[in-house]
Amino acid sequence: MPVDLQESYRELGLDEQASDAELKAAWRRLAARWHPDRNPSPQALKRIQRINRALEEIRRARESGAAPAAGPETIEHGIELQLEEAARGCTREVEGLVLRPCTACAGTGFAEPATCDTCAGEGSIRPPLWFGWLAASHPCGSCGGRGRTAVTCPGCRGQASARCRYHGRVRIPAGVRDGQELRAWVQVEGHGRQALALRVALQPHPLFGLDDDGTVQVEVPVDGFDWIGERWIEVPTLQGVKEMRLQRGAQTYRIREAGFPGGVGGTPADCVVRVVPLFPSAWTRQQEALLDQLVATNTGDAKTEPGARTAAWKRRAGVGR
Question: What integer pLDDT is reported at residue 10 of this predicted model?
Fold first, then answer.
């Protein structure tokens, strides 16, 4: 263990096996004893600064060697992702502001004590008599006999904490779901690395619906004549545009592994495509003529299956003689 880290543990009266709860309890006990508001000793400010620095050193050392875990210093941050980003995985920059102990005063709210103006640092004053050297001195009321007065920290204005900017680059794995929480590290200005709890929110998608097993549902309007003619069409998926051949009479299709991962880092599920064939609500004269030709070639030619079946039915029904 580095010497400075050993000193930090000794400052708090702990050893390296102390738990996080014991670490926090020791800091609270010492801070209550040495805070300048409660302790009039001239050494109180320097001691509380050493105590706060020791706490920060130990926490930083513990965080740098282990996976980030939830704790009182964990930063919570929300992030919105599009469905495509969550399916493929992505990298995002995160930043924000968080309250942390002021580094200028080590979280005490006070700057270095100043010499008392009333007693000029003596800690006591004599009454203004003609023969003042004969009068007994008494403790200075302005500084309480300490000779120095507390000065509010200009950095935090006595609040003991300040808003610090944090930033980091976070890798989002493929397959994260809405409401899932990820752990990462970020740099906090003046406080080093700290744990980040990143909560994911998936934005509603205008085209895709997502099932619990990762199956993606999409509805695609298609030209009715393309559907009848079994033409190829392009279908949007989370993996990009895919080509799919229509089948006359079929309205539901499945594209393998074109959906959302079943879990983080898992294989993508399927994409279920429902096509909606669209036909004109009113036919043009040209379309009517072409339709008549199509009907004639389909049912009038006995060589075709529909034509043969139509002719057989007419013979049995005695129609068209």
Answer: 86
